[in-house]
Write the structure tokens for this entry.
Amino acid sequence: MAESKRLESTPASGEINRRAFFAKIGLGSLAIAAAGTAGFAYQYLSPNVLYEPSPIVNLGKPEDFALDSVTMDPNAAIYLVHIAEGFFALSAICTHLGCLTAWNQELGMIKCPCHGSEFTRTGVKIAGPAPKPLPWLKTWVSDEGELMVDRSTDIHPLQFLRI
Ligand code: FES
């Protein structure tokens, strides 16, 4: 018995005794708890912000849009329309329940695939449950001569951008 106690208290080289083993387990547990606490503290102190893409869209050079054309940018959910009166941008989001509309070249109208609302290329509602026309969006030409659209700013209809 006395010999086994002596063996336990004096480990051979490369071995650890029970006290050192539990000390290492304790230190490891504290390190894991500290790392977890630091992670939660960082998460708590970081601003809880949703980063959304900019509402400003660069559509490129006006000469890329032929006269009498309706061009949809599906990523920005807008139409860029070029007619004799000038350029303008429309939201492509249906004013009924927010579906993405589509330009129908053959029929010459914008149609909503969800519940059948129809709009002229100037956004005026022709048919369907949509309560309002498609909004016109603020459009301008940048210093570099490119067409810019602000999706977050509605303007009154029939404000054409003449270039
Ligand atoms: S969402 Fe377009 S008609 Fe309903």
Q: What stands out?
A: Residues 2-45 form one domain. The first strand starts at residue 56 and ends at 60. The pocket of FE2/S2 (inorganic) cluster is lined by residues 94, 96-97, 99, 112, 114-117, 128-130 (CB under 6 Å). The chain has two helices and ten strands.
